[in-house]
## 1
Amino acid sequence: MSEKAVKTRYSDSELEEFELLIEQKLSEAKKQLDFYVQQLSDSSDNADSKSKGLDDSIGSVENEQISTLASRSRKHIQHLENAKLRIQNKVYGICRVSGKLISKERLKAVPHATLSIEAKNKR
């Protein structure tokens, strides 16, 4: 029988590679979040930022944008943490719609992906 068996999950060594990638992305994301949190802290502690008038509204808009970026960073970190759990459970890289393996190229680009390109495009 020369039929090639369909791969249903990534090997342990492949999962280790993905885990290293995720750890790297997680470290970067945490640094980015720390930066945003520090920016918000500096802004609230800065006596100049407490001036009234037009400058105050500009500062508020900037703080809102930084807060939005911080929120996105927190979500990104949570997605990466969830990906690590999927690796530990050996279900990482399996499309939650089709049950097939997500391509390595996609996982390298978006390591927290839970959908294959095909499933993503059907949404």
## 2
Amino acid sequence: MTLENKNFDEVVLMIPHARRLGLRLLEREDDYFVVEMPFTADLEIIPGSGLMANGAITAMLDTVLGAVAYGQFETFRRIVTLDLRVDYFEKPRPFSSVITKCRCLKAMDRVIYVQGDVFCKDEQSPIAHGVAVFSSAEMEARK
């Protein structure tokens, strides 16, 4: 099976924490993914505040950036986060879903550079920005 035949659910939602975060693909092009993470009380930093925890946003970014990196190859590859940096500009709106748009900057045989922005409704007003570097290696066939 090539990556062309795999959908977001097969690639990302087989990861237990991605299912727990409730990630949902909104849009996909060759070089980017747009993914939503709905607000749930489980993701609140302070119960009842409606504010999503930064850790949940970081986990979302790591997962979606990794999916973008993974999608750069025609064959199955191991993808490992080497470096992840997230800058937070402001808190998300209380009780609001967050959306991330992530894209590949450069993909080489063993290293992939990706970036993404997180926003609530307005893509022009990001609440966070992430950049990451992933390593990649071909997977050996199982015997």
